[in-house]
Structure formats: C-alpha cells, structure tokens
Specification:
With 231 residues, the protein is α+β, with helices and mostly antiparallel strands. The protein has 2 domains: 13-79, no CATH class; 84-230, UDP-N-acetylmuramoyl-L-alanine:D-glutamate ligase. It has 8 helices and 5 strands. A 5-stranded mixed sheet has the order 1-2-3-4-5, with helices on both faces. Strand 2 (124-130) and strand 3 form a beta hairpin. Helix 7 crosses helix 8. It is globular, with a radius of gyration of 20 Å. The N and C termini lie far apart (50 Å). The model has no long low-confidence stretch (mean pLDDT 88).
C-alpha cells in the first residue's frame, strides 16, 4: 500500500519547489517572456536575478493552480491546518462557496460567516475588509480561545492602496507572536494600516508605489490598543 506523505508546518512546498527549480537548466518559452531574466537584461538588473529566476508560469515541477496535484495541493493541505486564517470578503465567499454579492453587511451576517469559516470553532478567523458603518473599515474576528467575536475598526481613508491586506496580516502575526490576544492584535493591525494610508496620502506618494509603512514602524512597539469592540 502506498504510504501517504505527512506534511507539517516546518515545510514550505511551493518555496522548496521554486528553490529546486532555480537550479534546473530550464528556459521557459511561455509567459512571462523574460525567459528567467535571460531575455530581458534590463529587467534582471532592476529586479535582481534571484527574483526573475523564479518568476515562471505553471509547469510540471511547480504544479498547476487550476488543478493542483503536487506542491500547490500540499500547500493547500498545510493552509487547512492553520490556527488563524485572514481572508478578505472575496476570499471568504470563495471558501464558503457563496456569491460575492451575498457578502454580509450586518453584524448578524458576519457572525454567521465567522462561525462557518472557523469550522464551528476549531480555528480563529480574522475577516478583513468589513465595514459596518459608513466611514469606517476593518475586520470581524472570532477567537477560538475565548469563543468571542470582536470588531477591529478604523477610519476609512478616501483612497485604496494595494498591499494593505498583506500589511494587515503581517502586523497581526507579529502581534500574536508577541503574545497579544487576537482582538488587540487585530485592532493594532487595523490602526496601523489606517495610519500608513493617511501618511502616504499626506506626503503625496503616487498610488502605484503603494503604501508607505517604514516611517511608522515605531508605532508597533507600543502597547496593544484597548478600544476593540468585543461581543
């Protein structure tokens, strides 16, 4: 009988596959057209060889996102073991098999989605991109340790920047690793993202350059916010 490969959180299947692929003498002839940097020296100089050498499309060593059977499938299995997930509303609708148009806009609907996403309390959930009232945005959170739901909200700025979801998740993770509770960590992340967006707008950074967070990193050294709305 074929023995099933056991995965654990010390593994990173996609990263490890890309590292192996980096050593292979393969020149792809599909998208992207820079041929791992060989077809566009200017791009290689700008981004760096390490970046362009793994900027490749789906192929057998790297699996296929539309029909994953190897490393992407393994990464999905690892993701399913997560103690905390941080989907936005679009991702949550996909996870739940719901139409995006049916995304809840009220507290009762968000509670129902949080319960389903938590697998009936088995994992914590931070659902981002939530807005219960005009002018504010943030996250709805379910903490599996306490069984409580909280809302981490901040002022909504007039412009949207790409990358704010990754910034939110990074601050959330760092705060959790420092021992903060889920509610406080989520509020810290929401506040920090809002401050960074406001700062970026104030200094006039062009929208394509993304949000500026480096000058404000010192804010993350303070105590966790205490105004989180816990229910």
């Amino acid at each position: 009988m074929k023995r099933k490969h056991v995965l654990d959180q010390s593994q990173a299947p996609i990263y490890q596959a890309l590292q192996t692929f980096r050593q292979m003498r393969v020149v792809p002839f599909d998208v992207p057209g820079h041929k791992r940097g060989r077809g566009n020296p200017e791009l290689t100089e700008f981004l760096g060889q390490q970046c362009v050498s793994i900027d490749v499309n789906s192929m057998k060593p790297l699996d296929n996102l539309c029909h994953p059977i190897s490393v992407i499938r393994q990464a999905e299995e690892l993701a399913a073991q997560a103690d905390v997930i941080t989907p936005n509303l679009t991702e949550a609708s996909l996870l739940l098999g719901e139409d995006y148009a049916s995304c809840p806009g009220d507290e009762a609907g968000l509670r129902a989605w949080l319960e389903r996403l938590s697998l009936d309390g088995q994992r914590s959930v931070v659902l981002t991109g939530v807005g219960l009232h005009p002018g504010v945005t943030g996250a709805a959170c379910f903490d599996r340790e306490t069984g409580r739901i909280s809302f981490a909200m901040a002022r909504q700025e007039p412009t949207r920047f790409s990358g704010t979801g990754d910034l939110f998740a990074s601050v959330l993770l760092g705060s959790l690793l420092r021992g903060e509770g889920l509610a406080g960590a989520s509020q810290r992340a929401a506040d920090f993202v809002q401050h960074c967006v406001a700062y970026t707008l104030a200094v006039g950074t062009p929208l394509p350059e993304g949000v500026q967070f480096e000058p404000l990193l010192g804010e993350l050294m303070g105590p966790a916010p205490s105004r989180t709305d816990v229910r």
